[in-house]
Design goal:
With 333 residues, the chain is of the alpha/beta class. The protein has 17 helices and seven strands.
């Protein structure tokens, strides 16, 4: 049996999109960068903002996962949607083009837009590679396609270096970890400096007066990659505590390194959609019990999962916002 025969169809579909189209849904580079088309961000900078391909596609992924979860409970099974998608691709049909609203500035792209506003306000000089931004390829590593991951890593490094990039500011935790910790294992003399958005913000807000537009209780959900891989647990909380008007309330023990997983990440939600939803509901309940009005996190997958969990427990009065959105609102408030 081939290696691909051992990998669930949903992951094969995403992996093929990464290797062939450099994004998870198979759209072209201009579509992936559509969220930034009116921002006039320069390309030629030594420091670049690495947007990844999670936030801007999250609206469509949320709809696809909802369908998969419904089918997972039926006799049809959850693999049908991704099998159909794979068949469409063989016929030359671009699935991403069928859903243009995903590529526009929908809710999913809002954290990216907020992050750009924050970095500009902090005086950070950065660019955005737009359609030239490669996919980090991290999922290839997580599903065991190490040869494909190494090839993609070499391509990513060569491309970034050819564009004059020396420093990267990542926002998606998995992309940041891949660029920071996994690529160096594949490349001799790896010399890119990779930092996460949280680190850059914390370093630059010490002299700023931040105030949220209203008094509010918030709780924080630790994304697995950010807390366990990048080891950034206290930094997001330091940022939240620096914002006047915000009261941070948290579960007694399911926080930090002991935070419960939301059920997303690494393709788990594609392979086990119903179990993923159970975990999302459990985490949503834990966070809702804190009495928070806003759940803050910093990962497109976590946002998607927590929204789904809150919807199922009918906690419609609780918002889920990205940390970048919170900081942007505090700067503008």
């Amino acid at each position: 049996m081939s290696k691909k025969g051992l990998i669930p169809p949903g992951l094969v579909y995403i992996a093929d999109n990464i290797t062939k189209k450099q994004n998870i849904l198979g759209g072209d580079g201009r579509e992936k960068a559509g969220w930034a088309k009116d921002l006039n961000l320069p390309k030629e900078r030594e420091t670049v903002f690495f947007a990844g391909c999670g936030y801007q596609y999250s609206d469509k992924l949320e709809s696809l996962l909802s369908l998969m979860r419904k089918m997972d409970k039926s006799a049809i099974g959850a693999e049908l949607p991704t099998n159909i998608a794979g068949f469409q691709k063989k016929l030359g049909i671009n699935l991403a083009r069928l859903y243009p609203k995903v590529l526009a500035k929908g809710d999913g792209a809002q954290p990216l837009l907020a992050a750009v506003r924050v970095l500009k306000s902090l005086g950070v000089d950065f660019g955005y590679l737009a359609e030239d931004e490669p996919c980090c390829g991290g999922l290839l590593h997580y599903i065991g396609q190490e040869r494909e991951f190494a090839q993609n890593a070499q391509m990513v490094y060569r491309k970034l270096k050819s564009l004059g990039v020396k420093r990267v500011i990542g926002i998606v935790p998995s992309c940041t970890y891949t660029l920071r910790s996994l690529l160096p294992d594949c490349i001799d003399g790896y010399d890119l400096e990779v930092r996460h958005f949280v680190e850059v913000v914390l370093e630059n807000i010490k002299s700023r007066q931040l105030r949220f537009p209203r008094q509010v209780k918030v709780t924080y959900h630790d994304p697995c990659q950010l807390s366990r891989y990048l080891e950034m647990i206290e930094q997001p909380r330091q940022i939240l505590r620096a914002i006047k008007g915000i009261e941070l309330v948290e579960p007694d023990w399911t926080k930090g390194e002991w935070a419960t997983c939301c059920g997303g990440g690494g393709g788990f939600e594609v392979v086990f959609p119903e179990l993923s939803q159970i975990l999302a509901v459990n985490r949503a309940k834990e966070l809702a019990e804190t009495g928070a009005e806003i759940i803050v996190t910093h990962c497109p997958g976590c946002i998607m999962q927590l929204k789904s969990g809150l919807k199922e427990i009918k906690a419609n009065d609780i918002e889920v916002l990205d940390l970048a959105q919170i900081v942007a609102m505090a700067m503008e408030g």
